[in-house]
Every structure is written in C-alpha cells, then in structure tokens.
Amino acid sequence: MKPFKLIILLLLSQAVGIADESLHLDRYTLVHGPVVIGGARQNASGLTYHAERNSLFAVLDSPQRVVELNLDGSLRRKINLNKFDDTEGIAWLGGNRFAIVEEARGNIVLVEFEPKDGGVNWIKAKKLETNIQVNLTNGLEGIAYDPLAKRYFVAREKRSPAVFKIIPTKPKSEAPPTAILMSLAGRGLRDISGLHYDVKYKRLLILSHESACIVEANAYGIESSRLMLRGGKSGLNKTILKAEGITLDKRGRLYVISEPNWLYVFDKAGLQTKD
C-alpha cells in the first residue's frame, strides 16, 4: 500500500474512533425520581458532582444558598452564599473548590467550602469577569469546568443562546480572562439552562429547559447525541419543566435538577433497574 493511502486510512480510522467516543445520551432512561431535594423549597438553579465526597452540590438563586446532597437527593448540609446575587450555576473544581456563576453580574465566583462551613462571603471571594454581554433578562445561566485544560464553559441563556470557553490568565496577571464563542454549541436550542463537561469523553453536555433536552457536543460544538426530557421519552411520564442543572457521577449516572426542587436520575438502559 502506498504511504499516502496509508496515511489517509489512519486519519480516517482516528476520526471514526473519535466519533465513537460518545456518551450516547439517547440510551439513557429514568431510573430514579422525581424526588424533592433536601434543603430547598424553590429556585433550584444548578448542579455539580463532587467525586471525592460522592455527593451532589446544588445552588439556589433565592435564597442564595448551596445544598450538599446525597445521590438520592437527601440533605447533607446547607451553605449560605452571603452577598451573592442571582446564582445560576455551580461547578466542582477539585478538593473543596467550586465555581459559581452569577447571572446578571456575569461573574464566575471562586469559593472554597470547608467540610464544616455554614457560609461563604462574596466580598472575600475571587471573581473572574467574563466580559460577556449580559443583562438582567439575558445573563449567564450555566457553568462547567475542564480540569485538564483548566478552562471554564459558561452559557448565555437566550436571545441567541451561546456557549463560551473561558480561559483564565496566569495567576499573577491582571488581564481579564479570554472568552471564546463556541459557534455551533447550543445552535437550534430555544435556551440554555445548564452545562456539564465530561473529562473522560471530552464532551460538553448542554441542557435546555425550553427545548426539553440535553445535547452532547464535541470539542467543536457539534452535536453527538441527545436526551429528550419530554413525557413519553427517556422513561419519563411527564415532561421535565424548568430543568436547570445537570451533572454526571463517576459511574456515569446522569442527574437533572429542575425548579422548584426536583431531582431526576438517568442511567443507560439495561445497565440499571429502576429504583
């Protein structure tokens, strides 16, 4: 075989391999829920998974608070967010570190939750200004974190919903982070309400409550698979209304949180029995 043809075949095989590296969201089905989460009566806004504690952290936008949950949605503890405003997303960064996004301010706020913390103060926290154009009715709605590339993903909710990659500057630099628009991600969705980045597959999950679905996108923002959140689909009897946050645990289970305070758990069909 000629070297040129061999190179082409190798490139094609790599491309096929990359295409196969998918979460296959269309294979997921409801296995638990909906259940009312502990510590929240209303305004559940974002969700993340803490792999070291094997727990969920949900952020509320009123009152500004984070609740740590067991995987079944029961409460572990409450953490007050003092002086925060319109908190709409949360991402675990590692250890006790988290990033919280404020919708109208357009900030990423970096915080640490020690095991016995009952609250953190916005004034003392480090902020990353995204410089993304936002306002009171169309702000930042979700956040995800890529620990390998040390970059964030944030979503602008509607009126041209979009996902941005946020690349922080070096620690001692005073320059603002760089915001890069992912041009394809979120295209065709009526809004974006939550994000999650999967390190294993290098895929971004994009939640839309108005389109009632979760989209899996690759590094270029191109859709790979989709999970429908409408009644009659994915094991759901009723459509999930106002889905606000998503995350995956280390077993690959998918968690969705919705207003006012509901938790849904999905897993790949055939791998788990319904709780």
Characterization of this structure:
With 275 residues, this protein is mainly β. It has a single domain, classed as TolB, C-terminal domain (Neuraminidase, 6 Propeller). Helices cover 7% and strands 47% of the residues. The strands form five sheets. It has a five-stranded mixed sheet, with no helix packed on it. Strand 2 (44-50) and strand 3 (55-61) form a beta hairpin. It is globular and about 50 Å long.
Keywords:
mainly beta, 4-stranded antiparallel β-sheet, 275 residues, globular, Neuraminidase, 47% strand, disordered N terminus, 5-stranded mixed β-sheet
What's the structural blueprint in terms of helices and strands?
Layout: H1 3-20, E1 28-36, E2 44-50, E3 55-61, E4 64-69, E5 75-82, E6 87-94, E7 97-102, E8 107-112, E9 119-121, E10 126-129, E11 140-146, E12 151-156, E13 162-167, E14 178-182, E15 194-198, E16 203-208, E17 213-217, E18 223-228, E19 243-248, E20 254-258, E21 262-268
Parallel strand pairs: 5-9
Antiparallel strand pairs: 1-21, 2-3, 3-4, 4-5, 6-7, 7-8, 8-10, 11-12, 12-13, 13-14, 15-16, 16-17, 17-18, 19-20, 20-21
